[in-house]
Write a structure and sequence with these properties.
It is a single chain. The protein has a single domain, classed as Tetracycline Repressor, domain 2. The chain is built from nine helices and no strands. By secondary structure, it is mainly alpha-helical.
């Protein structure tokens, strides 16, 4: 006779493994980015790499399962907070400073901006959200003469991508140097009358 407790026990073990993998993925992806080796996630969760594939179908399924906790909530908050800033010049400066701050502190942001995993629908939705906001900033910035006329939404995207590539594959600058360069970028794209500004840090 089959053990009546075997199936419920298996389900309990499976749920426990899923919870451990999720928690480990959030921790590892926050620290190392979405391209972190799955072996690191498996080790942190104390499961085999095969278990991750069994429970999530692989990296994309795992990214989809934890992207909100790892990066999406923070990226959406930057856009929402920027939209609440009164004055387009201040809005642009806040957004550029805040997104660059996130890029420096959270490696997964750079994986999103680089569209490193296009098979992940939630990741691509974040990219589309950012692209739409860039269009808003440029439209309103030009209307208020707060943004250089030559600046386009694609320029905002290119600046973010270039920064992601530099942080992911280049020599990481000191925070002081990084913040100084954020000010240079803002002075280059904003109308001279708007003055100078550094980066904005978020907790």
């Amino acid at each position: 006779m089959a053990d009546r407790n075997s199936e419920p026990t298996l389900r309990t073990d499976a749920r426990r493994n899923i919870e451990r993998i999720r928690a480990a993925a959030i921790e590892v992806f926050r620290a190392e980015g979405l391209s972190a080796p799955l072996e690191n996630v498996a080790g942190a969760a104390q499961v085999s790499k095969a278990t991750i594939f069994n429970r999530f179908g692989g990296r994309i399924g795992l990214i989809d399962a934890v992207i909100d906790e790892v990066v999406a909530t923070k990226l959406r908050a930057v856009i929402d907070d920027a939209r609440s800033v009164t004055g387009i010049s201040e809005r642009i400066r806040f957004y550029v400073g805040a997104i660059r701050d996130l890029q420096y502190r959270l490696p997964a942001v750079n994986d999103v901006l680089l569209q490193a995993f296009p098979a992940s629908d939630p990741l691509m939705e974040l990219c589309h959200l950012g692209g739409g906001f860039h269009e808003e900033l440029v439209r309103d910035g030009h209307a208020a003469s707060a943004l250089a006329e030559e600046v386009t939404p694609d320029d905002f995207q290119a600046m973010a991508i270039d920064n992601s590539l530099a942080l992911k594959y280049g020599v990481r600058p000191s925070r002081a140097a990084y913040d100084r360069r954020t000010g240079f970028i803002l002075d280059g794209i904003c109308h001279p009358a708007q003055g100078r500004s550094g980066s904005v840090s978020s907790s």
